[in-house]
């Protein structure tokens, strides 16, 4: 969903500007707006045999809207503490010139401070990666998204996200089998 939101923002359409405003304040994009972006994307032929959603559904209402369109096979929750989430997200940096993404805390780290390894430009922290916005998103997660996890019940698999990335990937792959 993040990619769909970024594409909408980059397009600078009315919808993209609305999405940007909501995200920069640390909020979640309204359900109808999110669902319409998603419906358009999953109607493409490359989704005919299935797809994986990352970061959707986030609200019980979104889950019910999704359930009316498709049957969800599995929900994977990658668990990390709030403090770890803040640490990881606040450490993300993006190159506005070439699009490279780095993390000052996890991999991939830039080789030279906060300069892009690919084009040597200064790296940028997105507004939604600042601590205040992250904490607002976490509060929303605890209030709304945890209801989605309850909604899907037996379809939920939880993975410890504070392990090495290779182990997290292995556990996610097992959960999908």
Any chance you could write out the topology, listing elements then pairs?
Blueprint: H1 2-11, H2 14-24, H3 31-42, H4 60-69, E1 75-79, H5 82-90, E2 92-95, E3 101-103, E4 123-124, H6 131-152, E5 156-160, H7 165-176
Parallel strand pairs: 1-5
Antiparallel strand pairs: 2-3, 2-4
Describe the fold and architecture.
The protein has 177 residues and is mainly α. The protein has 2 domains: 1-70, no CATH class; 73-177, 3-Layer(aba) Sandwich (Rossmann fold), CATH 3.40.50. The chain is 49% helix and 11% strand. It contains 7 helices and 5 strands. The protein has a 3-stranded antiparallel sheet with strand order 3-2-4. It has a two-stranded parallel ribbon with strand order 1-5. A hairpin with a 5-residue loop joins β2 (92-95) and β3 (101-103). α1 crosses α2, α3 (31-42) packs parallel to α4 (60-69) and α5 crosses α6 (131-152). The radius of gyration is 17 Å and the shape is globular. The chain starts with a helix and ends with a helix.
């Amino acid at each position: 969903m993040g990619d769909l939101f970024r594409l909408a923002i980059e397009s600078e359409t009315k919808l993209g500007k609305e999405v940007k405003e909501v995200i920069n304040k640390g909020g979640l994009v309204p359900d109808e707006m999110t669902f319409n972006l998603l419906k358009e994307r999953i109607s493409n032929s490359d989704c005919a045999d299935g797809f994986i959603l990352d970061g959707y559904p986030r609200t019980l209402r979104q889950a019910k809207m999704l359930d009316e369109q498709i049957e969800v096979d599995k929900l994977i929750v990658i668990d990390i503490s709030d403090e770890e989430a803040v640490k990881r997200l606040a450490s993300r940096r993006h190159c506005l010139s070439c699009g490279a993404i780095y993390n000052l805390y996890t991999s991939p780290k830039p080789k030279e401070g906060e300069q892009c390894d690919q084009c040597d430009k200064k790296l940028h922290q997105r507004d939604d990666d600042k601590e205040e916005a992250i904490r607002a998103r976490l509060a929303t997660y605890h209030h709304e998204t945890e209801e989605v996890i309850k909604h899907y019940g037996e379809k939920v698999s939880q993975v410890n996200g504070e392990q090495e990335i290779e182990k997290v990937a292995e556990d996610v792959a097992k959960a999908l089998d």
